[in-house]
Automatic annotation (TrEMBL):
This is 14563_t:CDS:1. It comes from the Eukaryota. Keywords: Coiled coil. Residues 1-36 are annotated as: Disordered. Residues 1-15 have a biased composition (Polar residues). Residues 65-92 form a coiled coil. Residues 23-33 have a biased composition (Pro residues).
Amino acid sequence: MSYSNQYLASPQLQQSSPKNRSLPPPPSGPPYQPTNVNIQLSSSVPTNSIMSSDVVNPFEKSQNFSQLQIENQRLRDENERLKEQVNLLSLRGAGGSNDFNIINSVQLVTNIANLRDMLNEFTNLKLGNELQINQSAAFTLFQKYNCKRSIEFTKLYHHENTEIFNSNYSLGNGLDFRQILKFALQRLTIETILIKLANHIESVLSRKITPASHNETLEANLIKISNDFIEYAYDFGKSRSGTDELTKTLPVKIRQQAATILGTRAFHTSHPFITQLSRELLETMNQYRKISNQQKLHEIQQMIPQLIREVIRVLVFNLRAHDPSPDVKFFEAGESVDLEQMEGAFEPSESLNYEVEICAFPIIGTDLNTRNRKLFKKAQVYVVEKIRAKGVITTLASKSD
């Protein structure tokens, strides 16, 4: 599945480019529904821990936790302030499109790395016995992304062994259930945010704006107006004679500056769209995992609004600020491994023997379907070894985290 370099999937917001395509609806999986089983991860506890004389006062522990929460929020706010300064400095300091691209390319690579770190933390399944997995929901997700090898093995183990997932989450023959599910949850998170964003913008633009709704519709209207301006400026340059460079570069400059401003300030964490999507995303994740540690659950809840903003900022606005705008593409299960476009835990010399089981993070770059492609980030994939003989399945587990 690929996402073109438009802002959103809404047809009326697409640029006049043949590469633009709408987001397809999520595929539906086959009817197989295994039994729902809660699985607890094992966690080793020192035998002398309960005998320790260093008993922490509950009130003091609660007070320390509150202080840590305050400090954590302060650091998040400071980080946002510094990001805004970097974006605005790049905007003011860019004398031309090439200068702008140089600055933005460096920042884009950094932002992509930070986003991947956030996704890894958000989809973390290493919480010992404080986390339970909904087996049935996990299987359904594997079916959604057509992870055939995972489905085959889980069906096999489901019939032969009721305890199919031990503490190491092995499905047999090297398949790492925990890592496959983590990768699938990362892809689900990204796609959910992008699709919900497209739906939100389309909904805003299809209804009448009132004084009461003016503030929450600013982003959608700014996107629409800037896209219209870019299209008119482009048509004006083509249909009106002249040789000045300003008219030629105006559409690009407007797109870059509008995208930079939106990437810096759009959709604050308290925006109604972010608030609503945060609740929906938490409910979605709770379908697949249950976290019993209330402190960890609170941390996850606190990071969701910022994660949503980062996905939108990096994969929508940051890409639009570059010229040409990069595309985003997920590789599908069964595709052969391509060293130039993918990264994972496989030996480069043996890459021809492997195929994709699940793609967690998309490839980001320009001209992705040509040899002239320029990449900002390779796709992160979990790979399995290709079937060499009928009835024989061998696998290779990908890196953790």
